[in-house]
Design goal:
Length: 147
């Protein structure tokens, strides 16, 4: 399933990048991720870091994800390797816009409800981009991150 969304913002792209690249804060902005347990870190040089984590999802289930933040391109890439879906999410800042692209396949029971789940991913993505760009509620009760 391919989902692409874009939100324009008036703020400073560097400030938006600071929020986007703070991997520990992903559950604060992406409400579909209830918690993120960091299991490993690897610096790929100045401005580039890869984190391995276990994500617990708000809609049920958990999965493994490898997340790379690349300051040079202002891109955050998340590769989901296990769980209710597998595939990639790429979020990047382009000028005064933040763009997200999901290319994922649902597994198990989520495969049966993929049209509903896809619509939920789409609206959740728009809301996350709005929060990242500086607007909207930042955190839902019960969401937490463990570094």
């Amino acid at each position: 399933m391919l989902i692409q969304e874009r939100v324009e913002f008036k703020g400073d792209p560097a400030a938006v990048w600071e929020r986007l690249s703070d991997i520990e804060r992903i559950p604060e902005f992406w409400h579909g991720t209830r918690s993120l347990q960091i299991t490993g870190r690897d610096s790929k040089g100045p401005g580039k870091e890869t984190v391995k984590a276990r994500a617990k999802f708000a809609f049920g289930g958990s999965g493994d994800v490898e997340i790379t933040a690349d300051r040079a391109t202002m891109t955050l890439t998340s590769n989901y390797t296990s769980g209710p879906f597998k595939g990639a999410q790429v979020v990047k800042i382009v000028g005064n816009a933040i763009e997200a692209k999901w290319d994922v396949n649902f597994t198990g029971v989520f495969k049966l409800t993929s049209s509903w789940t896809g619509g939920h991913f789409k609206s959740g993505t728009v809301h996350a981009l709005e929060r990242l760009s500086g607007g909207g509620e930042q955190k839902l009760p019960g969401q937490q991150t463990h570094a």
